[in-house]
């Protein structure tokens, strides 16, 4: 093997290594977070378009959810780069393990945001303005974990903001149903991310990161139940405000059953495996509600 070929192979190997590290930073292999961002936006899209969404707008929403969630993961790791090495679940993340440098992560973050920004050229001015607020919440959330005992509320705002953008993109205004979807997503996110935070209580206490799981302590089960109950109530209000029928309410019942199961398994002594399984079940909840909305307009 000559010197040039050897250098080419090393260069190719370095590129593959960087690509894999960048993919890990953006959580490409873990898309449940993207789905939790996307599904409420799809609820809004199918309701505001009465079951007949614009295909181009549908593509923009799917791509936008993927890119903004990816950007959120990148800025989260940038913000937590000094904490993650001390947490078992996160110590192998690219920045924490040294697979990526801070400057590389920042470039990846801005590149992802740039791609998301390109999608807004199809949107009206109100939707574009609302997109800038979404970026603000995405950047803000990781830093709230240092100063605010309920950072999950800011996560809920970031995750739910898509429904506001979608409604504005279709109607050029924001109406009651969009606000109700936003609120339901926010309360839902507080509940499921509190369940998720149960995995990291000991490590979070050690490094000084705040969470709802720490804040509510022995009352965490009751608080999770309260936020899930608020979510169900808001889902009912969404149905009433938008005139949805029986298929939708049946999907709300399915959501309630999943929420009851999550409440039952939440609490002291909850294993990481059960916490993670309970958290991921919310993707099924989101799909169930979306199915109820779509079926409502088909029958």
Write the layout of secondary structure elements.
Layout: H1 3-25, H2 32-48, H3 55-79, H4 94-97, H5 102-119, H6 125-147, H7 152-171, H8 176-197, H9 201-207, H10 212-216, H11 220-242, H12 246-265, H13 272-298
CATH top level is Mainly Alpha
Give the count of helical stretches.
13
> N- to C-terminal separation?
67 Å
- How many separate domains? 1
CATH topology: Tetracycline Repressor, domain 2
Principal-axis shape: globular
Largest sheet: none
- Helical amount among residues, as a percent range? over 70%
Rounded to the nearest angstrom, the radius of gyration is: 20 Å
Beta-strand share of residues: under 5%
- What is the N-to-C order of secondary-structure elements (H for helix, E for strand)? HHHHHHHHHHHHH
| Uncertain spans | none
> What's the CATH architecture name?
Orthogonal Bundle
Specify the CATH homologous superfamily.
Answer: UbiA prenyltransferase
Number of strands: 0
Average pLDDT number: 91
The secondary structure category is mainly alpha
Notes on the protein architecture:
This protein is mostly helical and 299 residues long. The protein has a single domain, classed as Tetracycline Repressor, domain 2. Helices cover 78% and strands 0% of the residues. It is built from 13 helices and no strands. Helix 2 (32-48) runs antiparallel to helix 8 (176-197), helix 3 (55-79) packs parallel to helix 6 (125-147) and helix 6 (125-147) packs antiparallel against helix 7. The longest helix has 27 residues, at 272-298.
